[in-house]
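Lab notes, practical 5.
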Amino acid sequence: MTAHPSLAQALDELVQAAAEATDDRWTLAALARAVTELEGAAGASLGGTEHDQLVVLQRRLGRVHGQLLCASTTMDPAIVLSHLRALRAPAPEPASGPVAPLPRKPRVGEPA
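Output from the prediction step:
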């Protein structure tokens, strides 16, 4: 049995977006969330993604893409499309203006 065509199309678009993704923190976080959720849906988790590089996440997405296409799944394509939107979203602008330094904790024996 194969996946519903709209799910297959959504997965294909997500894989294409991941292949074109830039290697930045925002993109890695979005791709890691997608990989984690899709692996969970496929029952094929490879564990945490916190230390995975872009190429590793892309490979994991390709792996789970194939598993979901070959499986009899009722996964809602809207879930995949939400990950696609997150992956394609522009990274937030960094805060502008001066940044206040974090308060320093007093050292042992130093007055507070």
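Observations recorded by the TA: Helices lie at 5-19, 25-42, 54-70, 77-88. The longest helix spans residues 25-42.
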